[in-house]
User: What shape does this take?
Amino acid sequence: MAEFARALRELRERANGTVDAVVVRGASRTAVYAALSGARLPSVQTLDLIVDTWANGAAVERDRWRERRRVAEEAMAERSRLSGTAVPRRTPEEADFADQLRALWDACGSPATEAVVGHCEVSARTLDSYLDGRTFPTPERFDQILVGLASVIGAGGEADASAVYGAPRTERLREALFRARTARKEERARVRKLATALPGRHAEPTRGASSPSAGFGHVSGVLPGSRFDDRRALVRAGIHRQLMSAIAGSESLGAESVVLSDEHSGDEDHGDVITYTGEGATGDQQLTRGNAALARSASTRAPVRVVRRIANASDGLAYRYDGLYTVEDYWSEQSPDGRRVWRFRLVRRTPAEQGVADLPQRDEAEGPSLAGGVRSPLSVQRVVRSTAVANLVKQIHDFRCQVCGVRLLLRGGRAYAEAAHIRSLGRPHNGADAISNVLCLCPNCHVLMAAGMFVISDDLTVVSRADSTVLGVLRETPEHRIDRQALAYHRTLHGLPEEERGMDA
Assistant: This one.
């Protein structure tokens, strides 16, 4: 997929093309950026619009790019198969509904999604996902789309959809939608069942080939300060169960361990505090695999084992297990070479939290650490948050979540809510401890926002990052105005392209 994305970027450069020009033709801005960054293959419809815009729409060019897309898609499927990953297939029923919806759209003149959403309660991003066949609407949303489409083609917003498109056609579409949604449920059930039976998921480890299941925390019999000759020794001991990857763990449970080395020039190792650069050496880094595991650890606060690569007088290299750390924060930023990278701040746990009497100190005889050069003394200053600011925001909203509207009551009738900073305090975020930078949220929405699972547009629309659906509108009052720049920072922090910072969801 990276090669396909690189070819698309080269096409744009040769044509001096812009994303806006493709969007004007009816493509999703998010889908175009995802294709250019390599995050996701574009649908055939989106690809045709890109080629029409940047390559003058020649039929031979369309065919050539469709073939490239097919090859990339097959390569992705083969990698998933070899890695033992269960991947949902696109069912024939889903393809049939997507084709019928696209045909209806084309019959109405292929209007821009932004024009249609002005007449219905569906966001442009969500409508784009329906047209690309990535997600499917509920029957209620489907009816709203028909009304919005009728309004754009001049039939009036309150017109009966059946009268505009014909009762047989709308009925066929509704039946196709029902079949697609039913097939999607069955496919998800199949994948869940398959995932539990994949080789390597529950099988016994091959003798001499794999390590014990270390899980989280210290490994029995291995104390902080223990040294290992090479990566294989780390694997055998269960300290770090990956021979190649620097991050071991899973996206669902979190990171078990990381290895610091000299591979990431952006790492900052101060001993007790580490700013760690995520995995992904080429192109923009994605919040997947090891990076997603570390992000998950920031939510669970499960301990992460840290291993440092050190100089060794005997053979030049060795590794040392340096104890447990906590992932305190993570964010995305632009690296010096222009890539988007993910950064994680890991803080060393105290001796009491480690469960050991003392922590290892670097022995000058062993030479410098290769992770971050010579370490410097660190002075940590805890950010002092204003309790008055947090309480004021909660009182303004009567302890009711600004996103979902939930108001939690504890024993004795006492209400409970949490104050969440949109732009975090302290380095590297440097957010303001002011009410404009604080939201009143329930615990669930607080966790989801901190993990970047939803973002808030400048018009206060709350959009799910899981499926691009609209979750609602953030409540704002005259006494509590929200800082739009803080919202833009939060969107950029969690990977939304800079061009879309102020875009309506």
Notes: The first strand starts at residue 227 and ends at 228. The chain has four domains: 2-82, 92-195, 227-366, 387-500. Confidence is low (pLDDT under 50) at residues 197-214, 361-368, 371-384, 497-505.
